[in-house]
Design goal:
By secondary structure, this protein is an alpha/beta fold. The chain has eleven helices and twelve strands. Strands 6-7-8-3-9-10-12-11 form an eight-stranded mixed β-sheet, with helices on both faces. Strands 2-1-4-5 form a four-stranded antiparallel β-sheet. Helix 5 crosses helix 6. The structure holds iron/sulfur cluster.
């Protein structure tokens, strides 16, 4: 069995979404050619996403975490088909959308929407809030008559905690948190089942972040939404997630339930990543291995051989330099890609 087939089988075995997943990503690869000179001769390949597999159960929040450049945002864009896929498969609501044309994606895109990081840059400053929130309905021909359209916009504003009376104002008249609420209302306009949230609160003040995260959790409960959540802030991830996947240089190194991962990380990279986050429980804090990640993140253009993490890993063995570890299920149900656990 190939390494990718092992990873897929492993994911299917240990994933709570194995039965009827909303989203299934199998051995996803997103590679970019590196070219040089006037003739644009290809001299290399950037493997931004290199064999990523996971499934999302309906109604859960699945987070992708990792340092900048690990491939989490590229994975999210590929899932939305806003990024060309090099290889692998993306199934959404049971339909293989990997190679759908833009026209075939159009009705499916209604069901998978994006919440952007920047509530300042993602809203058109010249449009009234009512037009911003209602625009997806107009684009998809679902606006209905004027009264119905207006009522739907007011309903969406109330849903995200905005006063419907503010519908005729412009984005600059709102605070950062309110602007992110406008963005969320817009993303909900078409009744999606999946929201892909790329760093949705990282541009906001810390005090506002909690309000927006709590709103998202409340909306999930009320509307049965599923979230693919991308974030580098692990305290936010810990608060909102059901399960977490840790990525390093284009690959997933560990997938586990939120509490399992944060209370007892197993992969050396996960351990090191979480060691920087303070834990409220002093007993756990005292017993936690304070791993230090050695060195900088290597270039994704020229990643280390074998296990990509080996130059920075305190447990690296000779085998790690030559053999890439497969993502396999372990006794406690989590998936780990590390030779320590083979
Ligand atoms: Fe460290 Fe080896 Fe495990 Fe990679 S495979 S994380 S280098 S022990």
């Amino acid at each position: 069995m190939s390494e990718s087939a092992v990873a897929q089988a492993a994911t299917a075995a240990a994933d709570p979404a194995a039965g009827d997943p909303l989203l299934q990503v199998d051995d996803l690869k997103v590679h970019f050619p590196v070219t040089e000179g006037l003739l644009k001769r290809q001299v290399g390949t950037i493997k931004a996403v290199d064999g990523v597999s996971f499934k999302l159960a309906r109604g859960e929040t699945f987070s992708l975490v990792g340092e900048s450049g690990c491939g989490k945002s590229t994975t999210a864009l590929a899932v939305l088909r806003m990024q060309t896929v090099t290889a692998g498969r993306i199934l959404f609501e049971g339909v293989d959308v990997t190679h759908h044309s833009a026209a075939r994606m159009r009705p499916i895109r209604r069901r998978m929407q994006m919440v952007y990081q920047d509530p300042f840059g993602s809203l058109n400053p010249r449009m009234k809030v009512s037009a911003i929130i209602g625009e997806p309905l107009v684009i998809h021909g679902l606006a209905g008559d004027r009264e119905a359209h207006r009522a739907r916009i007011r309903e969406l504003m109330a849903l995200v905690g905005l006063l419907p009376d503010m519908a005729d104002r412009y984005p600059h008249e709102f605070s950062g948190g309110q602007r992110q609420r406008i963005g969320i209302a817009r993303s909900l306009a078409l009744d999606p089942s999946l929201l892909v949230c790329d760093e949705p609160v990282s541009a906001l003040d810390v005090s506002i972040q909690a309000q927006v995260v709590n709103l998202m959790m409340d909306l999930q409960r009320r509307l049965g939404l599923t979230y693919l959540f991308i974030a580098h802030d692990l305290s936010v991830v810990r608060h909102i997630s059901n399960r977490v996947a840790v990525m390093y240089l284009g690959r997933i190194v560990e997938i586990a339930d939120r509490d399992v991962l944060f209370n007892a990380p197993k992969h050396p990279y996960t351990e090191a990543l979480l060691a920087a986050v303070p834990v409220a429980n002093p007993e756990i804090e005292a017993n936690r291995a304070q791993q230090i990640i050695k060195g900088e993140v290597p270039s994704v253009r020229n990643p280390p051989s074998g296990c990509h993490f080996h130059p920075r890993c305190v447990h690296a063995m000779p085998r790690c330099r030559v053999e890439s570890p497969a993502l396999r299920p372990r006794d406690d149900g989590r998936l780990i890609a590390c030779h320590l656990y083979d």
